[in-house]
Design a protein that fits this description.
Elements (H helix, E strand, L loop, with lengths): L23 H35 L10 H29 L3 H43 L6 H31 L2 H6 L2
Amino acid sequence: MDQPYAPPQSQSDLPPTLPQQMPAAIKIFGIIHIVYGGLSLLMRAFNAAAQGFITELSKTATPGMVFPEDLMHQAFVISLCVIPISALLVACGIGLLKRKLWARTGTFVWIALALIALIVETVVGIRMQEAMMGSVLDAQASAGEMPPGMDGVMKGAQTAGIVIGVITKLAYPVCCAIFLLPQKIRDALS
């Protein structure tokens, strides 16, 4: 007669286990992190370079047009500060594809930093647009080139642009938080 069942004595006695399948959210967000972060890196580097060009251009700008140099300097500094935040997102994307737990944590750090940057960018952008738009409107009104009610239309378009920009920049961090927060995602990472 056969011997009764005996539990395995060591790990080598256990049958090999199949690796846990990676949840689709990890793979999808890993790829999107790399693409979005890479594009953000390129855009921020271009923005930083363009700020110097715009500052020089502002010295020969249309009479009456105001380019607030302090705000342009702030926009330049913000662009430089966001470059490492974008690099963090790329690194987290690579980490997610390699199933590293630190990549999930890094993504939440990126979300916090991206939200802070969004707030600062929005405040500086609004101040910059108001200064520039105000100078254009004043110059056109004094020259008699402004149709009645056009200032309201221009300010409405400016506000709509700001709102659309904020919503667009909030979309990806919110999606990351929703899809990478569940415990099953954490469990799938090592």
